[in-house]
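User: Hi! Is it possible to get a structure for several chains at once, not just one? Here's what I have:
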Amino acid sequence: MVELSYEEKEKRVEETLGDYVIECHDVNKWFGDFHVLKDINVKVREREVVVVIGPSGSGKSTLIRCINRLEEHQEGDIIVNGTKLTNDISNIAEIRREVGMVFQQFNLFPHLTVLENITLAQRHVRRRPRKEAEKVGLDLLERVGIPEQARKYPGQLSGGQQQRVAIARALAMNPKIMLFDEPTSALDPEMIKEVLDVMKELARSGMTMMVVTHEMGFAREVADRIIFMDSGRVVEIGTPEHFFEDPNHERTQLFLSQIL
Amino acid sequence: MTDFPQRQQDLLFVAPKEAPQSRKPPANTIGVVGWLRENLFSSWANSIATVTTAIVLVWFLSTTLNWAIFNAEWTVVNNNLRLLLVGQYDQNELWRISAIAVLLTFLSGVSIGFWSQVPRPVFITIIIVLALLVFVPLISQAFPPPPVRVIASPDAAVQPMRFVGDEGQQVSVTIEQLTNRNADPDAENFPGFIETSPGSVNSRTIWSEVRQGLRTESLDLSDYSLNFSVALVDAAGNTLETLTSTPDRPETSFTVTLPETGWYGIVTDMVASETGYAWIRLDGIESYTTQTQAVERRTERYGEPIDLPCPDGGTDCTNEVAQRVLRYEGSRDLFDYFTLQVSPFFRAMVIPSLVAVAIAFVGGVVGYFMKRQPRERVRLSNSIILGVWLLLMPVSYFLLRGVRGDGGLLPFVPTTDWGGLVLTLILTAIPMVAAFPIGILLALGRANKRLVMVSTFCTIFIEVVRGVPLITILFFAKLILPFFISASGAIELAPRMMIGLSLFSGAYVAEIIRGGLQIVPRGQTEAAQALGLTPAYVTWLITMPQAIRAVIPALMSQVVSLFQDTTLVSIVGLFELLGIVELIVNGQQQYRSFQREAYIFVGLVYLVVSLVMASISRRLESTGVGAARR
Amino acid sequence: MSDQAQPPTGSGDFFVLGTNDLSVSRSQPVQGSLLERFVKTPSFIISGFFLYVLFVIIFWAAIRGVIPQGAPTLVLAVWFGVIATLPLAIMTVVNTVVRGNRTKIPFYRDLVTIQEVIQLAFVFLVISTIALLIFNLRVNLADSGLSINFNVLSRDFGTEVSEGPDPRADLQFLLNVPVLGEQLYSVPIFAPDTYFRALAVGFVNTLRVVWLSLISSTTLGVLLGIGLLSNNWLVKNVAFGWVEVFRNTPLLVQLFFMYTGVIRLLPSRPDDALTLFDVAYFSSRGFYFPAVVYTPTSGYFYWALAIGFVLGVIAWRWRQRVNEQTGQPANGLNYFLSITVGLGLVGFVLAFVLGGTPILFDIPEASRFNFSGGTALSGEYMGLFLGLTTYTSAYIADIVRAGIQSVPKGQIEASRALGLRNMQTLNMIILPQALRLAVPPLTNQYVNLAKNSSLGLAIGFTDLFSVANISINQSGQSVVIFVVILLVYLAVSLLISLVMNIFNSTLRLKTR
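Assistant: Yes, the chains can be modeled jointly so their relative placement is included. Here is the combined structure:
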């Protein structure tokens, strides 16, 4: 493998990817007295796939939940798509419109059919007419490979199917950025692949993605960069090759030696 | 079969080609014996418990049934069904209640047909109930009506009695001498009606005096010197047949086939200053009630009641063979129980029940076909049915109340005239519907962690209302509430009670819904927020529907408990189902001693309705909205 | 491995943390002084606000001078709302301006400001509405010739009360509570001298019926609950029938039935009354039974029993500790019983030696027109007691059943597998877990029982609510009396909840 210096890598990233769409500057967050996020500086570029990995309790989920304001940070700035996250309700609304999110527990709405799950936000946030929203929904279900399940309720689907519906639901809002919070952790092993395939296809289509996951294979194959976090800190950010073959930080090395 | 060498046969085995039949388990673990062993006599302690419980149960059931069948007087219910159902609602305006009932039944039928299927047990129950309603009155008509007795005594003249008869009906009149033997208080009683017309002297008082006299041996009936005759007369005053009882021939009787439909009478010519007692027994005569409607119907069929000449020359002394002046004496047999107690009730219920089932069935068919339409139409029908349900309540209220002033078709019926089961249902339905939004708002207010002031206020309100007895809230609504609005306190009592009940149930519904909100996982809210939905949409579209679905059983039991709590308005002065019993008992002296029967009937109504609601709730829980979706 | 020690930080796309120590964390920075933070706590704001509103209410007469005279109540109420919410409004405006300067967010888009304004509007609406209602109430009452007068409580009550403690003595009468009705018929009928005392008598009567119904319905309910879980088909279904019937008929119907259909139909003449061995009598006037009479030497016995009880409890505790430390069997109950009974016996003998028997029973005697001696519970009391017991026991039975059923079968199987005997399984495994689940709904039922006792009014039992009803009819002071009974019932509800919560928290500690 050709050894590239950091300057060269950065240059390559700059050339292939677009501008920054997520910027975290010195973000700090506490739950009560517990310091969850410590001086986080993370930037994500357009069309980039960034994978966040780290041991459990390292604050990776909290970080991406801060990006669409499911959690409030106390210090520092988070700028998404040029909009700063503050208590300004119109900023929050704008960011949530542009950022889609997929959860570990799918969080589909159990009282609505699959199609209604997908059309709900389109109709009430994007203000699309029912016909159009349903068409978008059916197209997306086609894209994630389960068009025949549209009239069923989430409880009648398998976990993998539910997670694909959740991805379709997020995509239906035409987001610029997708956040994935451990999307495969709650799935049975044989269903993980079908979800990862959808995510890979999405990455190939040029979607900006920030993914918290334990799937090292996925990280290696798809990620542009990998962020490694521990104890609320960003420990290392690097390309997959660099991260897996030649990590810099002691903690990263230790982590990799334990999981590989 | 494979043959193995002898010495290997213990170790090797091949199953025979034809497997042996599987055997039954030991006889004492299956069938009736097994069931009994397992469920009733599994151990010594268990056997003792079974026997003790069985003895107590048999004693309780036999006493209760014995009383209910042979002694209880259910006519207090049968003769007051209208009051029990609709209270003192204007009789000419009863069609409004019927109209609402028809609408309600139809709509229920449509909803059942549209949203679910009726399980087979329900069908079977309905058919059994209907069959009972139809056949019990029919069968009991085959039995002769119990005899009506009037006493002939030396001290008091026998009042003439009038009754109605149809052409061809067989009526017999018998004179039975009262002797020391058959009047002995320990001897077998005379089952049948005894005349007990209001006043100090009637056949029943004389009869009990006679028996008292025999008990204390101050009276001897062996000497019979009565000499009198009894005549059967028709409406025109013609004598049809005469009986004469003399000391030589005290016992006599005749049977007459009535020549035409109309009024008849029994007249006696008692000669005073003689000794002896005798029964005048009338067989084959139907007793009747003196309710306004019944009287009208009777007059239409038989003409105006006749007046018979009084024995002492006065006027207006005629007694009727009406239940008002009759009292069943002696131990009743099962036939009389069905004829007199059960069958009038069933006869009154049969036509309304048949009509209701027919309407519900038609509704069900309509609903079923509405379901079988294309998706768009079904969605429309869904909203239409929901809309009609929502409209039903204000429309019914308006219909029941009418228009003040010159109401035209709908004259004003003040809520003070409402009563009975109808008022109970209104007092359940309206407050429950009102409690729903109140409860939702209070629950949202209390669950809101950010708006501290709002949640504090909602908490205080909920806890105060839940911390005090309902009756204090009803008294508040009765005594203080009107002064919040005007000095005259002009709002009627029933609406005030509705306000009180709404606030009360609102607080309870709030707590139920708050419980539901806590069940909804946080992820649901987060997912909705992440999609960009505003807080109002998140609540309205995501959390609230799920919360309410989760607590439907609790909400249903709140409906049941509100339904039972409406009884408290009787303390405040409304005549709902329980309050009307007091009205009946206080207004009609003859039912004074039958309060127990009335309360049992009312209790049964509550029991049946509550159990039905509970079973609906259980059904909703297991198969209804959203059960399959989780 | 790269030997690059310091990571490039250039544009921020790549990064390596400079330090190996990841555990360093700092606590959340605090803004403002201690005082400033205290002032911003919700509890301070709410209590301060309530104090201020109280202040406004007290000085309302003076404040009213500012407002144009003769204004309609609506205008007055709005004024009241404005004045009462003024500090909140000022706080909101100041906060908004300060925050706006700091964050540069327009105020109409700032989440915090929006919440504060909604809150302010809500408080204003609520306060104005309450003020409107109360102003209306005062005006309307005055128009109909009534006025709110709290002095009514010390006025002469003037009507007779048929049962309860005799309130003509000083306030100590409240301590002589006739727990089972000892003095009930020694003071047949009396008239309390003030409304306050009449209400107190009613309150005592409420407590009398509540505590006994509470015990009886719990006992019956637990038995029925066990019956519901019995593997005996007959017992199970009888219990089930009981629960369904009494839960699904209204309490008031049950009360009317018990009173008019059972109690009132008992023979009214004492010499016809149903009797148990000529010791206790049931008649439509009430239930007459022997009373325990205090003798001069009773004190010895009761004190000995009490001391024995306390010592017994201490011994029980001590045995438990011994059991924990040494593993010897605790036998706590045996120790407790033997000490209590033993000391009781000693006291009894001592009393007997010193001057005669310490326990005497006064047995009621039925004559033609009256009962003499003994003690009694009135017919109304019995009706209410029976109705409350049957009704509440049905609910308690279901709670007990649900509690026991909530313990997973595996728990029982596990304890059997460990070799625990049946009683041990019940005591150590099932009950602690079942109780934890059963106590909160049980608390609810007890509170309901206390509240339901107010239905005694319907059958003529002179409980708190009946006396309140008489008071309102006599004095016309509905508002005052209403406030009093509201507070009393709230206090009772809270007290029961408090006791049960304490019980519940001890349970929770035990099960941990």
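Residues 334-371 of chain B form the longest helix (38 residues). The interface with chain A takes residues 521, 523-524, 526-534, 537, 541-542, 545-546, 549, 626, 628-630 of chain B (CB under 8 Å).

User: Great, thank you!
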